[in-house]
From TrEMBL, chain A:
Keyword Membrane part of the UniProt annotation: no
GO molecular function: DNA binding
Sites of 4-aspartylphosphate modification: 56
Coiled-coil ranges (or none): none
The protein, known as: DNA-binding NarL/FixJ family response regulator
Domain HTH luxR-type: 145-210
UniProt entry tagged with the keyword Phosphoprotein: yes
Superkingdom as given in the UniProt entry: Bacteria
Organism of this sequence: Neorhizobium huautlense
One Pfam short name: GerE
UniProtKB keywords: DNA-binding, Phosphoprotein
Domain Response regulatory positions: 5-121
Amino acid sequence: MNRYRILIADDHELARSGLVAVLASAPELEIVGEAADGMTAVALSETLRPDIALLDIRMGGMDGLEAAAEIRQRAPETLIIMLTMHDSVDYLEAAIKAGASGYALKDIRRDALLQVIANVAAGQSFFDVDLMRRLLRRVSPEPAGDAAIERLTVREREILVRLTTGETNKEIARSLGIAPGTVKVHVERILDKLQVTDRTQAAVMAVRAGLVDQDSL
Amino acid sequence: MRRLPPGRDRICRVAYAITTDDRLSYGRTTLKRRKIVDDPDGINSPIRELRRLYRDAEAKAARLRLIVDVRTMFDAGPVDASMHGALSAIAGFSGASMASIRAETDMRWQFPANGVEHGALNESTAHAFVGKGWAGGEQVELRIAGLAAALEEADRDAIQVVTDQIAGFLASERQRVLRGQLTADLKARERDLENLVKAMIGAQEQERRRIAYDLHDGVAQSLVSLLFRLEAAGVTVSDASPAKEAIESGIEIVRMSIGDVRGAIEALRPAELDDLGLEAALRARLDDIDCVQISFHADLGGSRLSDVLEVTLYRVAQEALANAVKHSGCSRIDLRLASEHPQSVSLAITDNGQGIADLSMSRERGQGVGMSAMRERMALIGGSLCVQSEPGGGTSVIARAPVSVTLKEFM
């Protein structure tokens, strides 16, 4: 089995060593590097080319958000998960902007963290569900405009609505009774038609276009 | 010429000559005339009587003029110049060669300026008057000396009036100086107080930020580390083991504690405020409010304001939102952050709640204290806070401030 190669960046020695202890017990993961600041994380990403970089947001010197953007530039194949204390929609937005594929809080349970890593490694973005709900609640619907949404097929719209609740491809596939691979193709088409780069931005557009009942968020 | 008894002719002519001599004082001439002329009814000298009346009137006018002149001098100019003018007028009026004033404060003025010291004059040719002003609270002593002739009682009365006037002027001058000093003192203390408040609020913000950082970097990270270690330990024990249950409950306690610490950090000083700015911090604050419909508009174009302005506006919003949620029973809150023109920014928090029945009464219910503190904080950055409310008509709190404000105390 191919193990995911992980880089961990956190300027708190205690938290970092705790995280190493948690991940070391997962056979599918291999911790290839540790960094105590953003600069080191960027440098290590360039040389080690990890599959995933787990970044704390608040770090001395270059913070996790800057580091994320830098890593996306210099080691594009390295996917980023922010692991932070900040239970905040704005940090989530900033993380998405910086190119992160995942966002989880530091008090996340082990199983959930391993799930996030697995999802991101599989090419899906995964953000804290509660934060996503709050993010989408902020978006005020603007029914006018958005001709891009009009170009979506019925099935694509169906899948787009499900993206707003943070469902994974597998979950969507299960509830719609189709293959996960098909969902993946649909999602790619949706992103292409809406001219966005990730599922989160697509979800935001869906909410803005009024496809989703805001009260259900 | 009429016939007169022998010897009377000469005396009468002399008296007539005296009465026509303008250079001599009228009072003394009258005395002589009364002695000399045997004409008690004045029938024989209507012209003389007219002259007497005319001179009386002149003397009265001179006395009045003295009083009015002195008053005008004091109304017009500074004390020293007025005093010099008054003393000169008094000396002129009384025919004295020297006049001087000594106040209770031992201040002295004299005319002419290079004359003999106050009080060092020959007593026989000197007069002293004590003037009282401010209901006796201020006393001055006027001395005139070197008189060419004795003063009439009416003249002395006039000088007494003027002396009282001078005492009154000195009293009011002293009050004015005192008031000026008090006002200056009060202003200085106000400035001190303002600086103190500024320093205290700055210290409070610094303290809050420091504690929030310490919590984030210290306790929170230790708890996270503890949580991860418990999780790692949990993996090594089987689900059936009693240790598993203990570890699980430990994990829940740690997660709860992390939640508490996170809440404390947010309440002290939200990280958004420093890292992402006022807009993000306000949005995060609004995210935490449930059960109330919220609308938020910001047209700052994503630009950051100065630290002190962001912190102050955030605290105002915090207070206003807490009031709206706790007391107003509103179903909707509208928040607007706008740059009014390039130099100023405004933050308006409006709710549709029951309003504040009496803005002045709200203080008694404890609502007004926080808002007064916010008003103080706005004033410190050169801004203003306006609270509008009507019973049943909701409440709106509007804070305005110049964008150029920077205070080192807040950094």
